[in-house]
Structures are given as C-alpha cells and as structure tokens.
Amino acid sequence: MLLSPHALASTQLALDKGCYKCHGTPPKKNAPTFAELALRYAKHRGNAGAESTLVEKLRRGTFLGHIDAHERLSQEDAQRLVRWIIDGAR
C-alpha cells in the first residue's frame, strides 16, 4: 500500500518529534499505539471543531496530565499530527 505525501509527512513528523518512543509498538507504559489512537479518534473525521479541540487538549496536556513532548509541539505540528491520527495514522 502506498502512503499519501500527507501521511508520509505526518509519519516523519511523528518520528522527528519522538512520538514513537511512547506510542510505538510496543508502547511505553500505558501509552496507546497510533493504531489505537486512530481507532479512538476516527469518529472525529471531518469535524473541524473536534479537531481543534483535540489539538488544544494535546498541547495543554489535558489528555493525561503534563506531558512535556505534547506541550512543546507547535500549533501547526500538533494539528498535522491530530489530523493524521484522525485520518487513520497510516
């Protein structure tokens, strides 16, 4: 299966930001894998309002508390990652 340029860019962004250290396979501690996140957030596909809310929750650390890596993400990077996850993280 060929990946779209958007998916490749987001996969590379997740690699560059170190996301796979916790969300890879196997995940670190209780962190969900990207596949699990994609299943959980697929219901938000096409909902820009929900996407914006998820981006802010990610950057503020309100998902699971204070997570430095999440809070250091720029608005743009967080949005790209959230959209990639919502679209299936593939």
In summary, what is this structure?
The chain is mainly α and 90 residues long. The chain contains 6 helices and no strands.
Task: Write up this protein.
The chain is mostly helical and 90 residues long. The chain has a domain of 44 residues. The relative contact order is 0.20.
Summarize this structure as a short list of keywords or feature phrases.
mainly alpha, 90 residues, 6 helices
What is the 3D form?
globular
Number of strand segments? 0
Query: What is the mean predicted local confidence, pLDDT?
Result: 86
Number of helices: 6
The biggest sheet, with number of strands, parallel, antiparallel or mixed sense and barrel status, is: none
SS strand fraction: under 5%
Radius of gyration: 12 Å
The helix-and-strand class reads mainly alpha
Share in helix: 55-70%
Uncertain regions spanning at least 5 consecutive residues:
none
Distance between the termini: 10 Å
Order of helices and strands: HHHHHH
What is the element layout, followed by pairings?
Blueprint: H1 5-16, H2 20-23, H3 34-41, H4 48-60, H5 68-71, H6 75-86
